[in-house]
């Protein structure tokens, strides 16, 4: 479906990577990429499943950009507001991820599906995950997360890999020097447990969680370095120290893994 642009274009600057994300009326316009048709198939499946925590696909506009529904709320706030780091918000985020996964699990990707490359689990994929639930890609309303945006990195993966990525940013699993001030003193171990309980994560996945986090750090470092070589927003993030932050997070986890693991068993 082709959608005409009749409203003013307002740049959305909250993200890191994609240049030219615009709000136009009730819609968002974003440049397309090779994976866009596959991501749209996923979003349409989520809609058919009644999952309302993701934008709807409207179509393409006359400039060939993807057109998604604009989701009202707060996202990408810096510094983080206090409501973004509460236990209630973390539990709601876990519930949202669980509902997304349960809806995505019945999605059969198109035969010619193209997905963005990235680091991944060694286990067989269980579903198409979001794979980028960072602080900017969650929309809040009334102080609680209610939707994910930016499905650009969606790809076949395991539930646990998506859980690990989400916890990397939201528990968070990071060296405190790299965190927003409000996140520096959070009790990470209890928050891991809270998230896993609210998600309903299987015991075998809890036992593997921190080992997979370590693996993810080393693989993400390489994946991000590869993306940075292609220039654009990824190169900018790399130049601003994204790789160094991943390395520091890995070193921080080395020191704290045993103590954190005790909260998961
Ligand atoms: N569907 C949407 N509804 C509301 N806001 C959005 C939507 N899509 C993007 N935004 C806003 O634009 C910002 C950047 O968009 P995003 O799709 O995350 O691009 P990037 O790839 O740069 O991270 C987001 O952090 C959010 O603030
Ligand atoms: Mg984003």
Structure report:
This protein is 41% helix and 14% strand. The protein is of the alpha+beta class and 265 residues long. The protein has two domains: 9-69; 74-261, Orthogonal Bundle (Transferase(Phosphotransferase), domain 1), CATH 1.10.510.10. The strands form three sheets. The chain has a six-stranded mixed β-sheet with strand order 1-5-6-4-3-2, with helices on one face. A two-stranded antiparallel sheet has the order 7-10. Strands 8-9 form a two-stranded antiparallel sheet. The longest helix is centred in the last third of the chain and has 26 residues, at 203-228. The radius of gyration is 18 Å and the shape is globular. The structure holds adenosine-5'-diphosphate and magnesium ion. The site of adenosine-5'-diphosphate has 21 residues, from strand 4.
**What's the CATH class label of the largest domain?**
Mainly Alpha
Overall structural domain count: 2
Number of helices: 7
User: Whole-number average pLDDT?
Assistant: 95
Write the CATH fold name of the largest domain: Transferase(Phosphotransferase), domain 1
- Low confidence ranges: none
Proper CATH architecture of the largest domain = Orthogonal Bundle
Can you write the helix and strand succession as a string?
EEEEHEEHEEEEHHHHH
Report on the biggest sheet: 6 strands, mixed
The side-by-side strand order for the widest beta sheet comes to: 1-5-6-4-3-2
Radius of gyration: 18 Å
Q: Give the total of beta strands.
A: 10
Overall geometry:
globular
Note the beta-strand portion. 5-15%
Query: Which ligands does the model contain, each kind named once?
Result: adenosine-5'-diphosphate, magnesium ion
C-alpha end-to-end distance = 50 Å
Protein name: Ser/Thr protein kinase RdoA (MazF antagonist)
GO molecular function: kinase activity
Pfam families: APH
Keywords: Kinase, Transferase
